[in-house]
Amino acid sequence: MIGAGNYIGGVTAGMFPETFSLPEKVLPSGKEIAHPLNGSIPAWLTGLVISAVVLFYVFLGGVRSAAWANTFQTIVFMIMGLVGFLVIAHGLGGLEAASNKALEHAPEKLSRVGLMTPAHFMSYMLVPLSVGMFPHLFQHWLTAKSAKSFRLTVIAHPICIMIVWVPCILIGIWAAGLHAEGSLRVPPLPNGTPNANAVLSAMVKTFMESPVLIGLFSAGVLAAIMSSLDSQFVCIGSMFTNDFVVPWMGKDRFTDKQKVWLGRGFIVFIVLI
């Protein structure tokens, strides 16, 4: 959710100067400059809209609606992620030119600190197989009639992770090279250091000229966030009800309808926090 707020804020900077105006920033030298995020949609509004949309379809259809929404959202953010990756790579002169720029100006981003043996490196390939340990995904499996229903998930999940994360990581590495070179400006944190969560929005605004393409790519970013958020909402509501309230208050204390409302109430409470 924090990442979504930073991304939307960076992409929409300057679009709504009268509605979402921000005071000028004062540099250590005493000079006043326009706030880099002046006119951008604030993070709290982004979070509010995302939470409202996710809560609506989760409360309406529960796990089933979350599963169908996840399917659509996954397709959207995988396609748009690849499109955005190719557009940014083209703007940098191709994959090789982009990587060479990162190697020249930020070589530390292309290597691991310390000794990395082949066995150690290969062990990271086992991480995607831990999909069954994620509570918000494991809960989906509990609704299946047989193990065959989620066999595809175990096989496809590592592939989908690669399709999504490899382009994102490469974009981040390229951005580090551009920032070190001085050709990419990333909005700073209050302490003056570059905001890592704003790197993607900076790359998008720099290398995507079409507002339509920016909008579609942003939809993919939000889809990626919402595809996990809805299942996590369902999971925490179920865990609160079945693992805390029911054992504490008694198995026969609540009807199924009351359990559903207890879970919904706890989800809303967590969202408000």
Folded structure, characterized:
The relative contact order is 0.15. The chain is globular, with a radius of gyration of 22 Å. It has one domain. The longest helix has 49 residues. It has nine helices and two strands. By secondary structure, the chain is mainly α. A hairpin with a 5-residue loop joins strand 1 and strand 2. Helices cover 66% and strands 1% of the residues. The protein has a two-stranded antiparallel ribbon. Helix 1 packs across helix 2, helix 1 packs parallel to helix 7 and helix 8 crosses helix 9.
Query: For the CA atoms, what is the radius of gyration?
Result: 22 Å
Give the H and E element order: HEEHHHHHHHH
Order the strands across the largest sheet as they lie in space.
1-2
Low-confidence stretches: none
**Percentage of residues in helical conformation:** 55-70%
Summed over residues and divided by their number, the pLDDT gives a mean of: 83
Number of discrete domains: 1
Main beta sheet strand tally, sense and closure: 2 strands, antiparallel
- Proportion in β-strands: under 5%
Distance between the termini: 12 Å
Q: Which class do the helix and strand fractions yield?
A: mainly alpha
Number of helices: 9
**Inertia-based shape:** globular
Annotation, overall tally of beta strands: 2
Membrane topology: Multi-pass membrane protein
InterPro entries: Na/Glc_symporter_sf, Na/solute_symporter, Sodium:Solute_Symporter
GO biological process, one term: proline transport
Subcellular location: Cell membrane
